[in-house]
């Protein structure tokens, strides 16, 4: 496999460990408290992570068998699965989260090398090779590990993961003409994404915080004006 694929696997494995530690570090009495996502409790975030792991197992099953197995039967089924898991008692939800991680790990380790090039589709209908799955999951565990509003913050996301996430976001916005003629700059690393006269800048962690919609006013500058909310991503 390629170096990029091996890197994504490493990011995924590290992210799973960090997310599990974040979940385990929240007392049961605080799981019903708010996450960084509006309207979602910490239990909702954990439930989403569990159901997302199983949805990605579906994609790997599709790649392995050739039988179309979508991530979710429907958008309504996805929402219902999250709600049902979030309603579980704290101990049961924790166990289900750990088991879902184990199921995904088993699916990854059991997939034949040739099957990683098989075509599948994301929940948004985008065709991708199965080799995209580790990165798809890495995004989830790193970002939602932060969303748990526990000890993990955006500054704790490895810089290479943050840079890859920002690259994904800029590509998503550009392809859909959601933001154009804009350069995004990480003032602490010197890296930039996009191209254009309008500049959005800030430290790498703050830039990612804003670009993922977690905090509006955290970027240092948007052409010298007050920061507005970033466009939606995923």
Give the SSE map.
Blueprint (H helix, E strand, L loop, with lengths): L2 H22 L17 H24 L9 H12 L3 H21 L8 E3 L5 E3 L3 H15 L11 H17 L6 E5 L5 E4 L2 E5 L1 H8 L9 E2 L12
Parallel strand pairs: 3-5
Antiparallel strand pairs: 1-2, 3-4, 5-6
Helix pairs in contact: 1-4, 1-5, 2-3, 2-4, 2-5, 6-7
What would you note in describing this structure?
The chain is an alpha+beta fold. It has two domains: 3-152, dinb family like domain (Four Helix Bundle (Hemerythrin (Met), subunit A)); 159-222, Nonspecific Lipid-transfer Protein, Chain A (2-Layer Sandwich). The chain is 51% helix and 9% strand. A four-stranded mixed sheet has the order 4-3-5-6. Helix 2 crosses helix 3 and helix 2 packs antiparallel against helix 5 (133-147). The radius of gyration is 18 Å and the shape is globular. The protein starts with a helix and ends in a 12-residue tail after the last strand. The mean pLDDT is 93.
Write a compact overview of the structure shown.
The chain is α+β, with helices and mostly antiparallel strands. It has 7 helices and 6 strands, in the order H-H-H-H-E-E-H-H-E-E-E-H-E. The longest helix is centred in the N-terminal third of the chain and has 24 residues, at 42-65.
């Amino acid at each position: 496999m390629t170096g990029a694929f091996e890197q994504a696997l490493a990011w995924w494995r590290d992210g799973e460990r960090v997310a599990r530690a974040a979940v385990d570090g929240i007392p049961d009495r605080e799981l019903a408290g708010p996450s960084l996502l509006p309207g979602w409790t910490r239990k909702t975030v954990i439930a989403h992570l569990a159901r997302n792991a199983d949805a990605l197992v579906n994609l790997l099953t599709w790649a392995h068998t050739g039988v179309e197995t979508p991530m979710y039967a429907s958008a309504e089924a996805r929402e219902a699965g999250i709600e049902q898991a979030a309603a579980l008692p704290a101990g049961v939800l924790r166990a289900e989260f750990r088991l879902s991680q184990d199921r995904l790990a088993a699916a990854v380790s059991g997939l034949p090398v040739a099957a990683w090039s098989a075509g599948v589709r994301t929940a948004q209908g985008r065709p991708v090779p199965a080799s995209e799955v580790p990165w798809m999951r890495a995004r989830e565990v790193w970002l939602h590990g932060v969303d748990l509003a526990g000890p993990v913050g955006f500054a704790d996301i490895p810089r290479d993961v943050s840079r890859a996430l920002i690259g994904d976001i800029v590509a998503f916005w550009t392809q859909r003409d959601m933001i154009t003629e804009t350069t995004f700059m990480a003032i602490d690393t010197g890296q930039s994404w996009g191209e254009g006269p309008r500049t959005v800048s800030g430290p790498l962690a703050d830039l990612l915080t804003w670009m993922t919609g977690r905090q509006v006013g955290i970027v240092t500058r948007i052409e010298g004006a007050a920061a507005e909310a970033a466009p939606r991503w995923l």
